[in-house]
Amino acid sequence: MSTFKAPKGTYDLLPPDSEEFLAVREALSAPLRRAGYGYAETPGFEDVELFARGVGESTDIVTKEMYTLTTKGGSRLALRPEGTASVLRAALEANLHRTGNLPVKLWYSGSYYRYERPQKGRYRHFSQIGAEAIGAEDPALDAELIVLAVDAHRALGLREVRLLLNSLGDRACRPVYRERLQEFLRGLDLDEETRRRGEINPLRVLDDKRPAVRAQLADAPLLRDHLCDACRGYHARVRDLLDTAGVVYEDDPALVRGLDYYTRTTFEFVHEGLGAQAAIGGGGRYDGLSEMIGGPALPSVGWALGVDRTVLALRAENVATDRPAATDVYAVPLGEEAAGTLFGLVTDLRRSGVAADLAYGGKGLKNAMKSAGRSGARWAVIAGERDLAEGAVQLKDLTTGEQEAVALDKVAAEIVRRLETTAPMSSSGTER
């Protein structure tokens, strides 16, 4: 056994669990591709200042959770704790906003890193699917992204996801609310660090999860009561569009999310089956982020959905994902000549789109057939010297046990035909 283990708070993805994660990634991204979002991929680390400016210097992510390092050349870098700032930086650097085709629609998938206390659903390394619509201020974009996430959850078979919705106002109305909230917070019994946070960004205090703090926040002023007419109208339009799309949501006036860049629309997807870490994704509008990181004014909106937490939600609801068979055909050669012949057959099947595997290592018939059963294959192709001398192989149905001789030069076509006629129904949304 290896003396090395995965670092604390991380996990390895291996079969068969990795197949479930791949299926979730595919389901979460599929609606985005249909809606015109192009794929973006950014480095796993960025300049520290990108997150300090964008995410916010007073946030827990920047002050406590970022993994930072100094290169040999003296540059300060951080493993990315979230995706929006990185994707926006990449879009600006590539001048995608200058093509005249706004909004720029991008989706991405990757690993992110935060130094947190590990527990179920909260890891130091985690996976997300994200989407950003950059360069347009339109309630329909906010609604579109929410609908795409809802459709992804439905396609997976999830039924117990709740959507929380709020508005955080904008530069016109939030300063007035900020002053009211700071005045309220100064009258509470808070520790020094929380008081300091309240002076820098009081909305962060509303996101505090400690029971002693939350109890004191029960009578805190609500941002929805301080929205300007423009923000109130914008939020009403988002709600109307969600109603039209048949999306069920809950108004949550206390919802603020954990990042500084959000404005107006903010939302979160939660699942009670996850316990304390109930959020499985969320996002919102961030109209000022581009300017925060040195770009032009580009009103934008986006979200990120946790792959690992979505998997936990599926397991909580006992929902199986739709996964293609890892192996459809398993070839069992008996002898060196058969090994060469069936290697060629397996290669041809794979090139025809059939998932095929071969018994390697010169296994005997008994052990090879055990391996065929464990592979999940529907069909086994067995060949020995006598079969090859007759120009045939044995095709065995591993479900029924029926076996028959098939001409070697026709077996590939016959396998494809049988797989097409016996293709299993999709398991998406069915119970385990």
Description:
This protein is 38% helix and 20% strand. It has 16 helices and 16 strands. It has an 8-stranded mixed β-sheet with strand order 1-5-6-11-10-9-7-8, sandwiched between helices. A 5-stranded mixed β-sheet has the order 13-12-14-15-16, sandwiched between helices. It has a 3-stranded antiparallel β-sheet with strand order 2-4-3. Residues 425-432 have low confidence and may be disordered.
Strand order of the largest sheet: 1-5-6-11-10-9-7-8
Question: Could you list the spans in which at least 5 consecutive residues all have pLDDT below 50?
Answer: 425-432
Strand content: 15-25%
Name the overall outline.
elongated
The count of helical stretches stands at 16
Q: What structural category characterises the helix and strand content?
A: alpha+beta
What attributes characterize this protein structure?
single chain; alpha+beta; 432 residues; 38% helix; disordered C terminus; 20% strand; five-stranded mixed beta sheet
Short characterization:
The protein is an alpha+beta fold. It has 16 helices and 16 strands. It has helices spanning 17-34, 48-54, 60-65, 84-93, 139-156, 174-185, 192-200, 203-206, 211-216, 229-244, 289-292, 307-316, 336-351, 365-375, 385-389, 411-421; strands at 38-39, 45-47, 68-70, 76-79, 104-113, 125-134, 162-167, 250-251, 263-270, 279-285, 300-306, 329-333, 356-358, 379-383, 392-397, 403-407.
